[in-house]
Amino acid sequence: MAQRKRHTAEFKAKVALEALKEQKTANQIAGEYEVHAAQVSQWKKQALEHLGAAFTSGGVRAVTREDESLKDKLYSQIGQLKVENDWLKKKSELLR
User: Fold this and answer.
1) Per-residue confidence of the chain (96 residues) as pLDDT tens digits?
2) Interacting residues of 62 by C-beta distance below 8 A, sequence separation 6+
3) In total, how many domains does the chain have?
4) C-alpha to C-alpha distance for 78 and 93, rounded to whole angstroms
C-alpha cells in the first residue's frame, strides 16, 4: 500500500497562492504540483479562511500563545488525574 505524501506548510501555501491568483484551473495547478485537484481546492479554502488572522494585531502569534496556554493547562490536568488514578489503584489493592 502506498504511503501518503506529507507536504510542508510552505508547499501548501505556494499551491494555495497559485490557486488564489486564479490564472490557472485547479486541474492545471494539480498537474503542475502533482497533487489532486480536490486538495488544491481544499488548501485554497483554508488559505481564504485564515487570511484575516494575518491582519489582526498579534495575528497568528496570539493564537499560538493561546494554544500553548491551553496545552499547558491540559498537561497539568493529565498529571493530576494520573496521580489520583495511581493513588486509587493503590488503595483498591489494599482493600483486597
Assistant:
1) 678 889 999 999 999 999 999 999 999 999 999 999 999 999 999 999 888 777 776 655 666 778 888 999 999 999 999 999 999 999 888 877
2) 56
3) 2
4) 23
Q: Are residues 3 and 43 in the same domain?
A: yes
C-alpha cell at 4: 501518503
How far, in whole angstroms, is CA 26 from its chain's centroid? 23
Q: Which three cell numbers stand for residue 95?
A: 482493600
| Helical axes 26-33 vs 9-21, angle rounded to 10° | 150
Residue 29: exposure state from Cβ atoms within 10 A (0-12, 13-18, ≥19): buried
- Which range marks the domain in which residue 94 is found? 59-96
